[in-house]
Amino acid sequence: MKVAVFSTKSYDRQFLDAANAALGAGHELAYLEARLSAQTAVLARDAGAVCAFVNDELDAATLATLAGQGVKLVALRSAGFNNVDLAAARREGIAVARVPAYSPEAVAEHTVAMILALNRHIHRAYNRVRDGNFALDGLLGFDLKGRTVGVVGTGRIGATLARIMQGFGCRVLAYDPYPDADLQARGVAYASMAELLADSDIVTLHCPLTSETHHLIDAQAVARMRHGAMLINTSRGAIVDTRAVIDGLKSGRIGRLGLDVYEEEGDLFFEDLSEQVLQDDVFARLLTFPNVLVTAHQAFFTIEAMTAIAETTIANISAFAATGRPEHEVPAPAAG
Ligand code: NAD
Known about the structure:
Layout: E1 2-5, H1 10-22, E2 28-31, E3 49-52, H2 60-68, E4 73-76, H3 86-92, E5 95-97, H4 104-120, H5 122-130, E6 148-152, H6 156-167, E7 171-175, H7 181-185, E8 189-190, H8 193-199, E9 202-205, H9 219-224, E10 229-233, H10 242-251, E11 254-259, H11 281-286, E12 292-294, H12 303-323
Parallel strand pairs: 1-2, 1-3, 3-4, 4-5, 6-7, 6-9, 7-8, 9-10, 10-11, 11-12
Helix pairs in contact: 1-12, 2-3, 4-6
Bound molecules: nicotinamide-adenine-dinucleotide (NAD).
């Protein structure tokens, strides 16, 4: 099948080519650097499928253009599908596939890396020592043992993180509309969101971005947090109201902030913009805080995860070519 692969980087090409060969799939993969949007959808002409990533915009206009060119499948290289208008895809007769599970450890372990770095100020210590400054003032951390970690969303990634943090001797509180019985048996206590915010030294977000979780962490939620608590978001940027957390950082309510995702990351992340003037003033303000650590949506980026993403993506495309249905289809919302 001919597939137009959008938002391609060298590493995507490397892992997709390897999976295409290893699975003997023989798909014709046309690699495009452009992000998929209503303006760039025309680049998918002649392709039966498009392969897209987290910051590609699959809104109604994009999907209409794709459908007009004969595209029948969107194969996402991600677990999240918040960037796809599923109702529009259904109307246009386009199936949407995703990679539901690919190394939850990759994201959970990156979350732990952020927690440890922020707690012990590793990002500051690294620069100080290189600068010949060996003073410890400002680098005071705390023992994780005995601290309370609040995990919002205990699906694959949240559950993996909960188990890791229990290994540090932390008490784990969780909030999820669908509690995990296995985690409960391991001693994870489920609470309301308000209780979790009030009781946690570290709050970490692992729920999907939906209309319900959009700005889940807003000014009201920040006000409920423990003074000086740590907040980590490795899920999707818009779960956090960035302006509200900036206010929380200024007041000291948020003592440490770790972000692997940002609500306006589409114009920034995955690109080398080091020669350009940063135009996003909200993001620029975030970078001024010594107790903020931002990584550019790299939590998934391990060999194991990239291999699994590529193999599942190729398998989705092969299943669609053979049967008209991908292996891991995102169900379309009911017609209404
Ligand atoms: P999952 O579907 O296994 O788990 C999501 C959990 O969130 C489920 O248990 C669900 O019940 C729960 N949930 C739904 N609505 C909720 C709400 N309102 N409040 C609290 N919990 C709620 O998904 P996963 O594989 O664990 O991934 C979680 C998210 O992580 C994805 O949706 C994606 O946005 C993000 N992610 C980020 C990266 C990255 O590189 N930073 C990589 C992969 C996934």
